[in-house]
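ok so I'm stuck.
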Amino acid sequence: MADKENWAVAITVFLTSLLVGQADIITEAPVGQLFVYELHREVFQREFEPFHTVYEHIYNDPLVFKCNKERFPDLPRWLRFTQRDPYDNGFLYGTPLPEDQGRNIIQIFVTNRRSYVDVIKERLVINVGPAVKQMPYQAEFFLELRDIEKVLPSVVQEDIKSDIKKLWDTEKLEFVNITSALDRGGRVPLPLAGYFEGVYVKLGSDKPFSECMLRTLTPEHERKCAAGGKMPGECNTCFYPINCITWCKTVLFDLSKPIPPARVPTVGSGILEWGGEFNPPDSPPERDFFPDYIITIIIPFVIAVILCLILAYVMCCRREGVVKRNTTTPDVQLYHHHTIQGNFNELRRMAGRDRSTADRPRQCLQPLIMSEQTMAGR
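replied:
not stuck anymore, here's the structure
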């Protein structure tokens, strides 16, 4: 009876997690503001094997997230995804533009790398609406000692925002965009402690820039940056050293001033103006190509003929001849040379018969007899 109750509880938990997994996650993203959605591993870890929680057995599996727009192979152009390690959370982040307004359905696939079998599919619905806040004053700062995954959590964003509030001297501050330095052509850091990729953070407000921020527009600031100098101490407001700003890469955007419209091209009649009679250019002067012909054709041909004659002389006239070779070669060596084929056939004939009944090879005795005759003749 107890087993049936346990199985009933397990099946109930499984069906509940399945229904929760199939439900859409709906969120909002206003135009012109940073959107960040964090994919927590713990939430999906409980959904993979929920019946283990009944027996107090919970895994810590490596999970890999893959995201794409529904019916598309990739994400929308304004949205990016990052996950540094299978044991880290994933982040969807980006800043929608006015032309990106509408409903964006993002498919999230979670793969369990412990089993490579379990896969969970979620749907994230992002409703991109019109801009909520007007931020005509925007500034972009570079954090040299940060990675993109470490800046996206909301706690870290609040720490960075608190430092910028002191610098800007305002409380009305919102994130506009966060970009990794790698997306702007930065170099990939070494996989060692103390090396970071760097992050660009862009914030906006409706309050004008402070005096410290306006110093970045002065020629004196440019000279200090060229000489490797830093900003005065009263402008360095970072509470944590890891959140300190690289002042020489700070850029201010003043959107409060109206942008002049682009110059409209003047529409003409469509008929080209009369430019006079066409005078073709004169023919180029004649050129003598005979020296070029000699250099490129005759000289290589003569060299090739000389080399062929030298090769023919070496191959035909420098040979010693068969008679001269036989005269200088001992008779025993000549006999061995001429009887190789005969010896080969005799060995094959002997190999096909019994060794006890085979005749003793005659060819092996002939060189000894010839050598004895030669010694006796001397």
